[in-house]
Amino acid sequence: MKKIILTLTFSASIFTLGQDITRPVSSAEVGEKPIQKGNWLVGGSIGSLGYSFEGENFNININPQAGYFISDGVALGLTTGLGLQTVKGGDNIWSYKLMPFIRYYFPEGASSTGRFFGQGELGITGAESGGTSDTSFGFGINAGYAHFISRTVALEVTGGYNYSKSNHASAEAQNGLGVAVGFQIYLPGKR
């Protein structure tokens, strides 16, 4: 029995040595092709994911977005958002946003596998808690980095300042710094 197991193990190891091992792709050299005039970007991010031990509440925001490149490196689009903040002993707070955006990809610091970008957005935000809702003005100024893992998909990290005048959570305004992670799919336009 030991000879059979030893023979099978030896045969399997020799068979494995002859195989090509494919490593997962962690980046792709894309140059400027994904951010050319006429292309589309579709994706989203998850931001403000967290848990407060003091207030014993959890919050998460999901922000899908789509845009169109009006020129090389400049995209106009729309960001939507839905958020949830759980409140211990109270009503949960649902938040939402609808904001047009402009995104600019900087040529400085660019590599063949990634790009730095800046994004500004301006629109409406709101919240609903305990049957009462409130809608107001909001804006955001964010910067980030897109790392291309294939010719059409990039992982992104963004950070910046976001503001909402909505009276959710019994506050007069919500503003502050935030960090988000997400992905974008870059679709080629018709040429």
From TrEMBL:
It comes from the Bacteria. InterPro entries: OMP/PagP_B-barrel. This is Porin family protein. It comes from Faecalibacter macacae.
